Amino acid sequence: MATGGDDTSEHTGPPGPKFRSLGWRAGNAFVGVLARAGVGPIHLLTTRGSKSGRPHTIPVVPVDYDGKRWLVAPYGAVAWVHNARATGPVSLRYGRTTREYGTREVSADEAGPVLKRYVAIATKTQAQFKATQDSPVEDFVAEADRHPVFELVAVGSAVP
To answer: Among 46, 47, 51, 63, fewest CB within 10 Å belongs to which?
Structure first.
């Protein structure tokens, strides 16, 4: 771990987005309107704040893969990831439909194929990955520790 101002991290990808910037917030507001209208692949994810308990909503692109629904954190362990880990249930809204889900964070081996699928459909985030659409699944498994993946289990369904 870097200390004292040294930057010795191994991350060689581009710097992450400035989530609090005006441009980022404006973009989220715009895609939020599309998600509320049910246009495109973007859904609205709502988590409960791990400390405040207040709802927090952000746009996400869920992945349907192998008969299951998944959430990918392309920018790493951001706030929604911490909230999902700490408080559990989340909701996804698309158009006028909102569904409640439990979450299960998965291992790198399980995340690899999901990350490969995600890169193919969420093209705006491709720069956050070392692996490309044409890379083998093993390359995605190798970087899964930088991109948390959660299986979404519909509330009322049995968790494996």
So the answer is: 51
| Domain assignment of residue 56, given as a range | 22-154
Q: Chunked in runs of 10, what are the mean pLDDT values of the chain (160 residues)?
A: 37 50 64 69 92 92 96 95 93 93 97 97 91 96 97 75
pTM of the model: 0.78
Number of domains in the chain: 1
Q: Please check whether residue 1 lies inside any domain of the structure.
A: no
- Contact in structure between 103 and 142 (CB atoms under 8 Å): no
User: Is residue 11 a part of any domain in this protein?
Assistant: no
- Residues ≥6 apart with Cβ < 8 Å to 38: 94, 95, 96, 97
